[in-house]
Amino acid sequence: MKGCIFNIDGGYLEGLCRGFKCGILKQSDYLNLVQCETLEDLKLHLQGTDYGTFLANEPSPLAVSTIDDKLREKLVIEFQHLRNHSVEPLSTFLDFITYSYMIDNIILLITGTLHQRPISELIPKCHPLGSFEQMEAIHVAATPAELYNAVLVDTPLAPFFVDCISEQDLDEMNIEIIRNTLYKAYLEAFYEFCKQIGGTTADVMCEILAFEADRRAIIITINSFGTELSKDDRAKLYPRCGKLNPDGLAALARADDYEQVKAVAEYYAEYSALFEGAGSNVGDKTLEDKFFEHEVSLNVHAFLQQFHFGVFYSYLKLKEQECRNIVWISECVAQKHRAKIDNYIPIF
Amino acid sequence: MTLCQLFLQSEAAYACVSELGELGLVQFRDLNPDVNAFQRKFVNEVRRCDEMERKLRYLEKEIKRDGIPMLEIPGECPEAPQPREMIDLEATFEKLENELREVNQNAEALKRNYLELTELKHILRKTQVFFDEMADPSREEEQVTLLGEEGLMAGGQALKLGFVAGVILRERIPAFERMLWRACRGNVFLRQAEIDSPLEDPSSSDQVYKSVFIIFFQGDQLKTRVKKICEGFRATLYPCPEAPADRREMAMGVMTRIEDLNTVLGQTQDHRHRVLVAAAKNIKNWFVKVRKIKAIYHTLNLFNLDVTQKCLIAECWVPALDMETIQLALRRGTERSGSSVPPILNRMETAEEPPTYNRNNKFTSAFQHLIYAYGVATYREVNPAPYTIITFPFLFAVMFGDLGHGALIAIFGFWMCYKEKPLQAKKIDSEIWNIFFGGRYIILLMGLFSMYTGLIYNDIFSKSLNIFGSSWRSNYRNDTLADNKLLQLNPDSEDYLQYPYPFGIDPVWQLAESNKIIFMNAYKMKISIIIGVFHMLFGVCMSLWNHIYFKRRISIYVEFIPQIVFLTLLFFYMVLLMFIKWTSYGPTPGKLGSDDPDVIRTSAYCAPSILITFINMMLFKTDPNTRPQCDDVMYAGQMGLQKMFVVVALLCVPIMLFGKPYFIMREQKQQARSQPLGAGPEGAEGAQAENGAAAGAPAEAPHGAHSHEEISEVFIHQAIHTIEYVLGSVSHTASYLRLWALSLAHAQLAEVAWNMLLRKGLMSMGFQGGIFLYVVFAGWAAISVSILVLMEGLSAFLHTLRLHWVEFQSKFYAGEGYLFQPFSFEVILDSAGQAEE
């Protein structure tokens, strides 16, 4: 039933999004890109794709950072066009997507100020999708409570932050804890929201978000080995909307080394496959890359169904992956370091 | 159209391609389709052109920002410059760009400075108000009473409030205020005032509104906090002295500095303006040059290098008739480049289907586009466009027959044709206008033909013209006329002058209220069918030329002949019956005629219905309801002849159905017998492929080789075609009745518009009647133009298009070709110009 009336509000935007999706680079494009000798070649080839003349007004010589900026700018323009034309509940859904960028920006700024960097130097590094009005005044705050009371209380992130106020100081460790707590609250809220929308959106998005949650739980666990983070604290950081919840998370909380994490993942078919494929040898792909690959395939699957919001999320994520790929290739080209140029993650 | 191989000496290649581009008669083929864009030979040059274009775009943007008019290219388009000129151009653009960037940077710095000073000026002015309020004696009183002696005493030093003043974007004020309150826990005092005039943002040169604020606080801790927040909200802080005298002095200083800056700014602007004006004179010219160079190098990238690197090899489609011109252009190119080796243009054999190229002028091109909209003609197929030039407006006019409306269209079309050049030069962007303007000759012809058919129908705004005087008289007495609503005039009496109205329909029919439509319907319906059958017969005849040209002898015997026989014996015979009926039946005898049975037999009383006759012919029946005294046939031997016609026509169907497959089958068997061993069909194919490869063209299955197709497919194909044709001739004939239907609808709508609007206005009397008529006429004119001319015209146009595409062209036109797209600077520059807008 939902599908019947989806097109009234979402039809145009979904069509637009699917159109954008068709512009995502194909394997053949990547094969051409990796053959490039210089960044100029890269630019010439990208001109033949959907990117068109996005670099046409840049004076040569090109820098990788320019390419990165322009790629991001194009993506942001597209996303904001979608956002500006959307109505409830799609607009909230799209806003939810931007919250994760806000979290990243806040953490970036706090870490920056902690290291005595001037704020004007940090602002350009923030992701434009996650910018908000009070962002630049963030360095006023010295403690999490202040941060909440002065800055974040007006932002949509306020409800996620409530759990972090108890932290005493803003030091390196606490920032990391804040980031993960925020992310956990955000993911759980987003998961709830998608469930509440229901229908195909819930089917598609819950799958993707559950994977995201599990990935975070596993990565947190692996990264926490050898730090002073206690097991109890660590358990608090796990997002509880994934497939690992509750037994897997409990087992993860008890884990002491990488092998134990792997043992936990053994119980879950899809994750065990990822762990199997990952290795630390030179030619092998890292676990992180494996996760990325899995994420890409999940996002591509989102396009198999119609009349749901998942395509917007997936499009953004795929496009981000594409930007990472292009930047990776440009870096390799620029530094004449061709050995690892094939380490991009193809999308189609 | 021939495929040619072109050997160009490396040095001369550029000049030659440039000449060919000016000519626009050669379509180059990509000889390195599997080479990446950035691995081709002249990619560096293309890149340099891109760079130049970027610089030009930057210049253009700046010119547009200053609103300087760009000069159109006077007269002739500049030729593509020599490659060595490219370096000059690059240097010029580089210089201009750098100069401009420098000027812009200076201007921006100056503007930033200016902005700061203006903001400071505003701060000084606005804060004056705040300070005045503070210094207000009555307030002081308040303060004193509130704090009491003690407070003042205790405070002393501590009560001294610090403050900062600054400027902030107006829309950020609410968030700023809230943030201040939260971060300082309400311990600061903010005053703000709006700056009325918008300020220019130097980096984006937008006009922005800002506000002045002043924040009072106590203590250093708060000060750092406030400053941080100000920084976060991108507020600019300015020093503001506390003492009124200092402030005044500072204000004076600021004013003088603003004055100075103004003069410097003016000079910078002047300089910038001079640079841009100089650039604006040439920029279009430069654009054309750079685009031409780029196009040439793109074309050169399609070429192959030969082994010795001495020459470039190109393959191109060339119109066979223009070989001479192309040779000449190549020679010119060689001379220009000073090369001694002439280019070689070789004809090549190829199995590939060449592109279709029909020469057009501005008059025929619109008609050709109507045809191409359906499908580009297969190479060397009969092109229906020349016939369409006449049939299209004619069929339109049959549906749109009205002298008045036709004249409106014709006038509009004539105006567009007459003002062609100035209108073209205007380059109007509106899509609708461009459609009209592109079809201006069609519109003109449609208008003229509509006027002609309007005269035939004797219809002008639903009224008639009585030019020659009607052939009918009313001989009724006045009281008879007064008593009866409807009276008949008998053509077989003195009512009719016994000779027809010389041209078109007699205007008297306009007055025949009850049977005008019946009369017009009978006439228009027959005319539609007659026109339709002739149109279709013509289409079938065209297929003969196709068969002859493509040497499809079998198709002539088993397709064309049965088709034309089928159509002639059934439908053309029906047309003949109409003429027989028109010529051999007269009026029903009245006063003048006698009761002679012969006269009665040829009178309207005995005239049979053509439709019923035709249906009976198909069913082998005679009309059971013949009236007494009448014959049941129209001429002697009708029944026998009709039976024979139907039988022969039906016999044509199996010929169409099985003829071609049978011949193909027989051919295959003969082939198999003549090549009993070894070289089967594959062998032949292999040889073909070899030929193709030797000719340097990708081998493609040769056309017309039925032998490789499955015979069952041939059967199915032929069955579809036959069914389409046989059923088609019935439905298409009926389809031409739309000529009558639309014509009727148009006439009726025009009549309604006249009767409901203008007639009411014309009947009103007196002074008020004049005003009423004035209003009513506007309504009638608007409806006439919008509904009767535009909407009805559009609908008639579309129906005409359909009649041509479906009913006419399905008889002979395959439309499976692809268009000849020559390398031409004109097209490239046009499309570049459009993309820009």
TrEMBL record, chain A:
Keywords per UniProt: Hydrogen ion transport, Ion transport, Transport
SUPFAM superfamilies to which the protein is assigned, alphabetical: V-type ATP synthase subunit C (SSF103486)
InterPro entries: ATPase_csu/dsu_sf, ATPase_V0-cplx_csu/dsu, ATPase_V0-cplx_dsu, V-type_ATPase_csu/dsu, V-type_ATPase_csu/dsu_dom_3
Keyword Ion transport attributed: yes
Family per record: Belongs to the V-ATPase V0D/AC39 subunit family.
Annotated PANTHER family: VACUOLAR ATP SYNTHASE SUBUNIT AC39
Protein name, as recorded: V-type proton ATPase subunit
Source organism of the structure: Iphiclides podalirius
UniProtKB/TrEMBL annotation, chain B:
Residue ranges, annotated region (Disordered): 674-703
UniProtKB keywords: Coiled coil, Hydrogen ion transport, Ion transport, Membrane, Transmembrane, Transmembrane helix, Transport
The organism's place on the tree of life at top rank: Eukaryota
Compartments, as annotated in UniProt: Membrane
Major subcellular site: membrane
Membrane-topology descriptor: Multi-pass membrane protein
Database matches in InterPro entries: V-ATPase_116kDa_su, V-type_ATPase_116kDa_su_euka
Coiled-coil residue spans: 86-120
Chain intervals with Low complexity compositional bias: 678-703
A Pfam family of this chain: V_ATPase_I
Membrane-spanning parts: 394-418, 439-457, 527-548, 560-582, 641-659, 770-791
Family per record: Belongs to the V-ATPase 116 kDa subunit family.
Role, per record: Essential component of the vacuolar proton pump (V-ATPase), a multimeric enzyme that catalyzes the translocation of protons across the membranes. Required for assembly and activity of the V-ATPase.
Name recorded for this polypeptide: V-type proton ATPase subunit a
Organism: Iphiclides podalirius
